[in-house]
Amino acid sequence: MGNTPETVKIIGIDPGYAITGYGIIEKTGNRVRCVDYGAITTAAKTPFPERLLTINEKMRFLLEMHKPDYMAIEELFLYKNTTTAIGTAQARGVVILEAARAGIPVYEYTPGEVKLAVTGYGKAQKQQVAMMTKTLLGLKEMPKPDDVTDALAIAICLAHTGPKFSGQAVSGYQYGRYGYSKRNEFG
């Protein structure tokens, strides 16, 4: 009997409080296939705590239904609009909380890391990433909205790079990427 490659299930998340894109893939050997994808949406006029609760409940449902081995999520980058950044950070926190509750390790990637893993070029255009995501997963059409395609690309990034300690989500940005502050390390 030959060794059959292990199948790993990954959920990719593009967090947001209006739209949280998700994409679930399986990786077996060097092959990836799409299992499910979609978006968790919340209405603008809904009170913010209820929007977070909706994201929380739907994320819990997805994690219980698909039982992924890993979660890959986009690392937050600074927006010009701090209100949007804070809301997105809160939605991201709700998603990470649900992964922790389910015992799923979380890995975070910058947009440049995702572009590099999916297209081979860290400064690829959004459309190039979308086309490669569609091609790699053998999809007939591009998932909509863009947040869903981005979530699938984030999952592919983890599938291609593997779960490395350096990619694990850290406590916000308090301790830095590797769990310690350079300031503390060097005095």
> In CATH terms, what is the fold-level topology?
Nucleotidyltransferase, domain 5
> Under the CATH scheme, which class?
Alpha Beta
Low-confidence regions? 172-176, 178-187
Number of separate structural domains? 1
Distance between the termini: 56 Å
Note the overall shape. globular
- Continuous helix count: 6
Structural class by SSE content:
alpha/beta
Helicity, as a percent range: 40-55%
What is the CATH homology-level superfamily? Ribonuclease H-like superfamily/Ribonuclease H
Strand line-up across the major sheet: 3-2-1-4-5
Average predicted local confidence, pLDDT: 87
What integer value in Å does the Rg equal? 16 Å
Order of helices and strands: EEEHEHEHHHH
Q: Approximately how much beta-strand content do the residues carry? A: 15-25%
Q: What CATH architecture label applies?
A: 2-Layer Sandwich
The total beta strand count reads 5
Instruction: Please give the largest β-sheet.
Output: 5 strands, mixed
Explained architecture:
The protein is of the alpha/beta class and 187 residues long. The protein contains six helices and five strands, in the order E-E-E-H-E-H-E-H-H-H-H. It has helices spanning 48-66, 82-102, 111-119, 126-137, 146-161, 182-185; strands at 7-14, 19-28, 31-41, 70-74, 106-109. Helix 1 packs parallel to helix 2, helix 3 (111-119) packs across helix 5 and helix 4 (126-137) crosses helix 5 (146-161). The radius of gyration is 16 Å and the shape is globular. It starts with 6 loop residues before the first strand and ends with a helix.
